[in-house]
Design brief:
2 copies of one chain form a homodimer.
Chain A lengths: L3 H13 L6 H12 L4 E2 H10 L6 H13 L3 E5 L5 E5 L8 E5 L5 E4 L15 E12 L1 H7 L2
Parallel strand pairs in A: 4-6
Antiparallel strand pairs in A: 1-3, 2-3, 4-5
The complex binds manganese (II) ion (2 copies) and zinc ion (ZN) (2 copies).
One manganese (II) ion binds next to loops of chain B.
The structure holds a DNA duplex (30 and 30 nucleotides).
DNA sequence: CTAAAGCTGCAATTAAGTTGCATTTTATTT
DNA sequence: AAATAAAATGCAACTTAATTGCAGCTTTAG
């Protein structure tokens, strides 16, 4: 499930920001790198259990927070009030996310960068852009012909 | 604080969708119409108390849910895990929102409609677009010269 | 005026996320 | 190969937004 290359990548990313390499951080980061969709805390906890990673809930929260602080992972707010997390091999520019209203999964659409064509009203200082699309994902669409 | 015109507007909006006109719905809708920023549940509760509207927390939640279901109000997910609600006199098209990282207020930017220039990957069916910008609002910027 | 449908209040519950503190682990220095 | 300081972890308790079930009360149609 996890290749040598990927393991090395997680370590490299953590060392790049002068972070301590711990089993929890490695395990979490590998999952965020290898999973195609963004993971909620709960989904991460289940995935972690399957890979044999033992960690307290709180430690997972703290590992996720740390990865986001360091810019290694990013998080997307989802319509079920839970944050979802994803990491990429390369530093990613701001991009859109798609959340399926049926299965709640969140997909990174990295090719869909919000064009900064718009102009903000005067006085507003911009830090972050979050373009979130909602609808039906390909899997759900084909499943039940919604 | 609330004019005759506005009161009539709230009633009109509720009747347009064949909803029962109750003091709570009226009070909540008037607040959502008259407040410039989108209100969190907590902010609404405080505002309601000031206007003399008596209502249980749960009833406020239910009134908000109902207004959103009916398309009279819309809600925006905010970075503090609380939904924020706003209503407009006219039916509004999808637009961007700006949340200040300092005061957490959410502003509707109705003139900033996300151009639907982008193309979604094949298979994804689009229902809603949420473009949320984050940064510093004019008030916070001038206050502390951040 | 009456009745049914639909709201509301209250109490209990859910679920994501946070906090404080004692203990363990990591990475660095000797 | 220790010793050490700094940082990460586990555990228990806590916070807070939002939800649920149900009895009682309002609204509206007839
Ligand atoms: Mn992403
Ligand atoms: Mn808005
Ligand atoms: Zn789906
Ligand atoms: Zn502000």
């Amino acid at each position: 499930m996890k290749t040598d290359t990927e393991q090395t990548l997680a370590q490299k990313l953590i060392r790049q920001v002068n972070g301590r390499v711990t089993p929890i951080r490695l395990g979490v980061l590998e999952l965020l790198l290898n999973t195609q969709t963004a993971l909620s805390h709960q989904e991460l906890e289940q995935a972690a259990a399957q890979t044999g990673l033992v960690a307290d809930r709180v430690s997972l929260y703290r590992a996720l927070d740390w990865l986001v602080e360091q810019g290694i992972a990013h998080r997307i707010s989802s319509h079920d009030r839970a944050w979802r997390y994803k990491a990429q091999a390369e530093l990613t520019s701001p991009h859109a996310h798609f959340q399926c209203k049926h299965c709640s999964q969140v997909f990174c659409l990295e090719d869909l960068q919000p064009a900064l064509l718009f102009k903000l009203p005067p006085g507003y200082q911009l830090d972050e852009i979050e373009l979130k699309l909602q609808g039906t994902c390909p899997a759900c669409a084909s499943l039940n012909a919604i």
